User: Fold these one by one.
Assistant:
Number 1:
Amino acid sequence: MSDIKQLIKELEAIIADTGASVFVRASSITDDIAARYADLAEGYPLFSPIVDMAGKIKSSGATEGENGVMWSEVIRLVHTMADA
């Protein structure tokens, strides 16, 4: 079983990495984090919306600015999960 504290730590590192584009960071969540921590999806209801929103960013084809609106929701969800 995966560790929720490690998941939160990795998500916080991704959202803090402002040197990478929103698309790259969202891809990290959908392509890496989601698979490695899939066992936590049911026990932590905020995890699935984070992955879903990152998937929307990845598939949207939107500009960096347009993705910023969706990315702000990812950030909010990660902070909410960390504070829970």
Note: The CA atoms of residues 22 and 68 lie 7 Å apart.
Number 2:
Amino acid sequence: MGFFFYLLQAQGGGGVFGLLLPMVLIFVLFYFMILMPQRKRQKAIDEMHNNLKIGDRVVTSGGIYGTIVGLREDKRSLSLKVSENPVVRIEITRSSVAGLQEGGEESK
């Protein structure tokens, strides 16, 4: 409460506007340097999750490499083939996929 009372009592040099301007500028700078890039990154991740298809080679957030062999209708989970011999398949959520592996689709 004391800070706001001080702002209302401010005299000289530009008054309340002169004191609020630096805070507004800091907020604008914070928005353009932190919030906006984070939104762009999240949008790219969401787009990658929505565009996953069978045959994509991916890496999970836990560090497991595999190939997508099945997608569920609910669009929340997928089957991932981790090993060829013996065949090991795991069920994971789409949000667990951290990214696509280099090299694109499997060549087999």
Note: The chain is about 40% helix and 30% strand.
